[in-house]
Model the fold of this input.
Amino acid sequence: MTAMVPTATYRLQFRNGMTFARASALVPYLKQLGISHLYASPVFTAVPGSTHGYDIIDPNEIDPTLGGRKGFDGMVDVLKKHDIGLILDIVPNHMAASMENEWWRDVVKFGRESKYARFFDVDWSRPITLPFLSDTFEKVLESGDLTVKLHPETAQPSIEYLGTFYPLNPSSYAGDDICISPDKNRLRQLHEQQPYRLTSWRDASSILSYRRFFEVTGLIGMRVEDEAVFETTHRLILELVENGAVDGLRVDHVDGLSDPSGYLGRLGEKTGPDCYIIIEKILATGEQIPQTWPVSGTTGYEFIETISNVFVPSDKADLMYSSCDEVADHVSDATNELELARLQMIDVNFEGETGTLCDLAQNISIRQSRGFSSETIKDAIRAVLLHFPVYRTYGTDQGFASQDLEILDLVLARARSMPNAPTSDALTFIEQILLTKLGTPPDPDASEFRRRLQQLTGPLMAKAVEDTLFYRRNAILALNEVGGEPLARTFSLHRFHADMQKRLVRQPDGLSGTSTHDTKRGEDARARLYSLLEAPETWKSAVQRWQVTNQEHVRFLPDGPAPEPAVEWMLYQALAGVWPADLQPEDKVGLQGLNERFSGYVEKALREAKLRTNWGQVNKPYEDAVLSYAKNLLSVDNQSFLRDFVATVTPFVRAGLVNSLTQVAIKLTAPGIPDIYQGCESLDFSLVDPDNRRQPDFEALQHALLSGQRIDVSDDQNWKSGLVKQFVTRTLLAIRQHAPGLFKAGQYIPLQITGENRDDYVAFARADNTNVIIIIAPRLVLEKVGRGPFANSSCKKGTCTVRLPEELSNRHYRNIWSGNPVEVDERLDIVCIDGMPLIALWAGSELPQQA
Done:
């Protein structure tokens, strides 16, 4: 790629109070912070009231609620004035299946005859299903909630249901004054004459006639593989790139597209080589994006998984798992739990999508006289879906790349070796469909099967892992993160360094994220929760103690205690992660505010786990009991618990603040482009969305940065307030802007540490022909800073040394935080300089003044 690569991005979530005018006012702050590109969430017109913007109804209009085109252009002018670029989040995979979407409304009205019929990924062999009724059509009809009315804006006859107007095809009422209170039989007849069928929302997973985004029936898949659809849906996007308003694009959910490679090729051709393009793509461990894709990299979920190697003690993770098992009185089996979660997705949540694959394969089998029963085919397809180790492959009618063939070979081998495996002939038949080995020309049903299977494996994986297993397997919440894997594995600094060296080669221009709008918790909450792994026994004892303290609030229901011990473990750990650093047990207002946020998380966690309640079948007695228990934890009257909890978590809070500094220093200096999620230049202890989409206190952030006061790192309050983190972020971002070549292409050099405390640090250098930066960051700090000063008092000269290779030794270094010179030969003794436990040294060109 020859794109104009950012030095650092700043993600802003528009909506919820963030408009173009407000963003424009923040630009001077972003400039001072050291940001090169504003990275904006979707700004195109979305469903009224949208909180995120991914439910677009018009991709060729800037949302008026944000300020419209005039406000957008004004923001662009301000950005350009401050020499800051703009990256837009675009959503090619789906639009809102809403009657406010004119294109979709036209399709609903005219069916296959609509001029927009080719835009949407619809199964035209049957009527369009609209699963937005509270019950079956007949029951809703009998209740009187369905009527015929004129649409208040178009004045066209429509079936009205609770304020939503579904258009009637003109041919169904020609010459009939249907708006004069049609009886139920006439309304039923009218409904049957439409290209659509109104159905219960509960039936969506089994009967849906269009491809949706994951399980969201309100988001319908687009057919951007069709050139006309691409051109129409990208008209404004390409205009903004061409006129220079937009410098880069973030492609949402690229794996949902029919042909990601073809789409990205067309997008790159249209935008030109100067447009910076990144993709939302979750990579499995060891997986890389195809080298042929014309993109700069991913949005960086894999970076979160890699950096966990720095913070997880290699000998403690298993102890945390066993401690959780002991408290829960249950021996967990990650592999089995993952399989059960995937099977639930295949058989229940994505029943309709799986059924479509079975129907296509059965049609092929019948035409070819293969003689497979429907159950035999279903078993084979389920086995294939069950064993995918990555989100998807990228085959077309022209075949599969070698890396995808290796994945399919692995999938089929696993399917054949599983207990009660499908017949070998059936698996071979599915393989032949996928690999276009059914003769020529390619069978249309085989092409459709391949496309739909590859578009399904990603959602299956995501929903089984991120939105099911991560809420069931709660032993180590810090590892339950987008891009992570729930299976037990080893952690090591060696793997971290190896991954960074690969990243320099494969994704030097990809984003390095530690918080996003989709992460399960804020980066600082995760940094704190890592520290629990340094003391699993301490944590286990605390949970057992708190269970006793709060046992009177456990309710015993017919299906078991609420909360059950495994959920109690989750609640206490999640609370430890979100607890504000300075919240005291007597602060009633603070506790009430935290409870409001925590309750939303608890409800979502219970439903996503899909064990005793779920989104489709809410177990209200169970949820009420668990929510009551959680509320009591944060009651100001529960002082015995609160005082014990605060005293117990205080060492972890302190260790987490140091971990946070190490995390941000790595992100800002290791290979990749650092992405700062809104507010994360300071502390972010948020929970999963919608909590992590709240607007930060930008006024306080601006005041802290622009005050010009020097940060006293020996003052605990500066750590707890986030000032130290903001200072480190600003300083290192200034250096990135000063020496972009160093961070884009400079060597990544792991540094060897010797001495009795050698495992307590991670050290590396970035070096090119001119400049060197050395980072020596603390890790596993609980015992050192848990109760003492943040400056690492046990780090004394001679106890720990970094050995420098020849190209880094005997140079004139300066302490980045103070600018003071530091004597360095072939060895560098690790000593906290000026009270800062994070060591950052610079050699080379003159540093910018603010660094």
Summary: The longest strand covers residues 56-62. The longest helix spans residues 639-669. The two ends are 30 Å apart (CA to CA). The mean pLDDT is 94.
